[in-house]
Amino acid sequence: MVMLAMFLVLMVSSTWIQFVTAPQLNADPRNVRTLYREFGTNRGPILVAGEPVAESVPVEDAYGYQRVYPQGELYAAVTGYYSVIYGRTGIERYANEYLNGSSNSLWWNRLQNLISGVDPQGSAVELTIDPAAQQAAWDALGDQRGAVVALNPKTGEILAMVSKPSFDPNTLASHAISEVKATYQALNAAEGAPLINKTIAGNLYPPGSTFKLVTAATALEAGTVTPETEIPAPDQLQLPLSSSTLNNFGGASCSPTQAMTLADALRISCNTAFAQLGIDVGAPALGAQADAFGFGEKLSIPMPVTPSSFPIEIDGKPLDGAQTALSAIGQLDVRVTPLQVALVSAAIANDGKLMTPYLIKQVRTPDLSVAFSADPSVLSTPIDTQTAHDLRDMMIGVVQSGTGTSAQISGVQVAGKSGTAETVKGAAPHAWFTAFAPANDPQVVVAVILENGGDAGSEATGGRVAAPIARAVMEAVINK
Amino acid sequence: MATVEPGRVRSGRASELGLLVLALTLGVGAYALVGLGMEGSLPGNFYVLTFGMAALGFGLHFVVRWRAPYADPVLVPIAVGLNGLGLAMIYRLDLASQQLKGDDPGLATRQLGWTALGIIAAGIVVWVLRDHRTLRRYTYTAMIVGLVLVLLPLVPGLGKQINGARIWVGLGPFSLQPAEFAKIAFAVFFAGYLVTNRDTLTLAGRKVLGLQLPRVRDLGPIIVVWIASIAVLVLERDLGTSLLFFGLFVAMLYIATERISWVVIGLTLFAAGAVAAATSFAHVQGRFNAWLNAFDPEVFNARFGGSGQLVRGMFGMANGGLMGTGWGEGRPDLVPYAFSDFIFASLGEELGLTGIIALLVMYLVLVERGMRIAIGTRDGFGKLLAGGLAFVVAWQCFVVVGGVTRVIPLTGLTLPFLAYGGSSLLANWIIVALLLRISDNARRPTPLPLRGAPAQSPPASSADAVMPDDADSLPEEHLTPGVSPGVSPGDATEIIRAVDQ
């Protein structure tokens, strides 16, 4: 019958809209409803040591809830922002399903809410961040452009994550659309890219001398050297098949005998020694060792971490000797995130076992039951225990009497490595420092970068300007 | 299939009462949920509304019980149920406006007033109109009334143009859509006209491509109605009304003659007219464009005549998904005219696919009941009128819901009983009253009831009393040779009834 057919057509068309194409319609950027619905839910808080660093408070407007960040700038790199027009970043984005309560693991809660008629509420996401470490890193960085990341090497918990310059996520979470637009555009254009979390993303940095840990690890793993092996350390290294030579930092001489132990070479960060060592072990071995430390790995903490890279080919050709030499001291095209530098130290600190880094410790539903609990896992075992101990002892030397003496903490043995990475010609080098402490029972690993040397500019070395920041963070964790 | 079986006749009044209680619970329950969902408490006038709706519903029930005891028991509960759900949604949108914009449009209160008026009007029709065949005497009066109503909005000073369509008449503070009433007048006119002339219209002409075409000289009426509906489209700039009248006529023509060729001719004519209108009139063109390229950003963002409303409605429905957000939990207020033209999308959002399929089934049952009444009625006029009225409800649903769900271009019609609008509500309640009256006639246990005498089983031999056993027997009855045009079997009853009075 015609009329039955008419109604069938209507039922089909309704089904088409409400069921078949509903996901597309809901995802349509013009669909403000999705936004309203999302912003209208009582989103769960992001907690650091029990205190909210992001929470939703009820307001009397079209949305119903306003996201507030009590210590906005301090935690901006971690929380990210939650904007009506610019979407989400950071934990707000990558833990969104927990925060808004739509995660599959929360189905039981949703069912309970549905039956009891309670307004759905998001879950609380507890972070691994140590507020003391975070604050110490924030204070120590001051107004300098750079980043600090600290980890617990035994678990992979991220204890501090600071990126400067920072921004106040409150200004982007505001419901005043035009102000948010202006703020966003200003932040986006601002020098130092405040919206980018420099510890895990953004333009990666050349690691400089911190990469010598990887080069040393490669050689130690190969079994060709021990820390006590004398290796050549010329004042100038003639690069193979090239007319150019490689100097040591500031043109200094490493050793009057033109040779020194591997441990001493690391202690004073001798470029020519490590360049030669890199040539000896070869680029493929360096690349394989770097990969074992997590280079090239797409980590999510849960934010995605830009993979660090050690290219073993340039323009489709394997590295030649000169390129290998430069790569072995963390220059040329080697690029890392501060987190990656921390991971190298973390593997050394944890007897060669690299733990997967993570930020979310626990997720609790509104009724306080645990919906997710982090389970520390081994990401890889890049070096064996003996190599780890050798490297640790060498790094202790760096802090005791090498380039990293500024990282010393009284009464605590610290292991570290500095780095001063050349960038483009004319610009001041990046200052690096990575360390862990206490060396015999590490509780904290830290990596610090000061872009273009921070306040010290071209006078900066990693050991001088970045090491004190690393020390401050480690002290904050150890002296708790 | 037949509603009346000889020897076992139930008035259905008890079922009606039971269903009515159910329908009232549905409407009032929805109203309460809106209040609880949006404000955390029962709506302020909850008891007033509950009592009012119950009083009106039961009032109509008793009028029916008294004046049309054998009327179909499903019509009133369905209409009350739909009306109540519509009220709840309109109230919900009022609250949204109150909470977000700070002003209460008070549409729910007005709709409640119109509901009261509609139900009372239905009661009066059932009460006053003792026999629907009386209406046949007014066939041509109905035509004139219908035409006047349609043309009324064109009268300068009286007619009002709202959102581009000139289908409104301003009466003091009220705006009426006379077309809503015209559809009843036209249904009466078409029924009266076709019952007299169907034999001529049934006569076969040439056969083309296996289709039995009518004679060319019999094309007159359909051409006239076609011109009239195109005139509505052009002069009042309203696709919906035009579509409604023409669809009604073609459907009734088909019911009367059983010739598919009329439907083909009708559709062809209308398609030609619509295409011509779409190419020559900007507003019709805009509607087509918004329909075909709804998701085009340019069309979506057009200030006037774009697809923004349509697409937002679809967003709303998508948001509802299978189970809906629940009363007061969605954001139907984001769609313009969510309380009238787009109430279907609003309900789709908050009740979900489940809810609107249920609503469509309610309409379907209403329409099916109307058709069953048409089949069960003894006189040709009643058959055509009931069939036409049932069709007009179905057709209006199709045009509105089809427009909202992007099956056809969007028109400005209202969804019967659900949408905000006094004229529509009043007109549809009158349709229910007419169907009640016809069904009472159809279901009466004896074809020649003697007042005062207890109802008896009809004699099985009486040709008039034997109900067609299924829908297919309807055309045969119409085409029975020997029955002269204009005299249907029911006419005998009418004569006797007249004597009886």
UniProtKB/TrEMBL annotation, chain A:
Q: Which SUPFAM superfamilies match?
A: beta-lactamase/transpeptidase-like, Penicillin binding protein dimerisation domain
Domain Penicillin binding protein A dimerisation, residue spans:
43-125
Q: What are the GO BP annotations of this UniProt entry? A: cell wall organization
- Keyword annotations of the record: Signal
Q: Which residue stretches, if any, does this entry annotate as coiled coil?
A: none
Keyword Signal included in the entry's annotation: yes
Q: Where is the signal peptide?
A: 1-22
Give the top-rank taxon of the lineage listed in the UniProt record for this protein.
Bacteria
State whether keyword Signal applies: yes
Under the heading InterPro entries, the entry gives: Beta-lactam/transpept, Beta-lactam/transpept-like, PBP_dimer_sf, PBPA_dimer, PCN-bd_Tpept
Q: Which GO terms describe its cellular component?
A: plasma membrane
Q: Which Pfam families match?
A: PBP_dimer_2, Transpeptidase
Single GO molecular function: penicillin binding
Q: Which residues form the Penicillin-binding protein transpeptidase domain?
A: 146-475
**What is the protein named?**
Cell elongation-specific peptidoglycan D,D-transpeptidase
This protein's species is: Sanguibacter gelidistatuariae
From TrEMBL, chain B:
GO biological-process terms attached to the record: cell division; regulation of cell shape
Entry's transmembrane regions: 17-38, 44-63, 70-91, 111-129, 138-156, 176-195, 216-233, 239-256, 263-284, 342-364, 384-405, 417-436
Annotated region (Disordered) at: 447-492
Location within or outside the cell: Membrane
List the InterPro entries hit by this protein, alphabetically.
Answer: FtsW/RodA (IPR001182)
Q: Which UniProt keywords apply?
A: Cell shape, Membrane, Transmembrane, Transmembrane helix
| Superkingdom classification of source | Bacteria
Q: Name one GO cellular component term.
A: plasma membrane
Which membrane topology describes this protein?
A: Multi-pass membrane protein
Annotated GO molecular function terms are: lipid-linked peptidoglycan transporter activity
Q: Where is the composition biased (Low complexity)?
A: 453-465
Coarse class of the protein's main subcellular location? membrane
Organism of this sequence: Sanguibacter gelidistatuariae
Question: What name appears for this protein in its UniProt entry?
Answer: Cell elongation-specific peptidoglycan biosynthesis regulator RodA
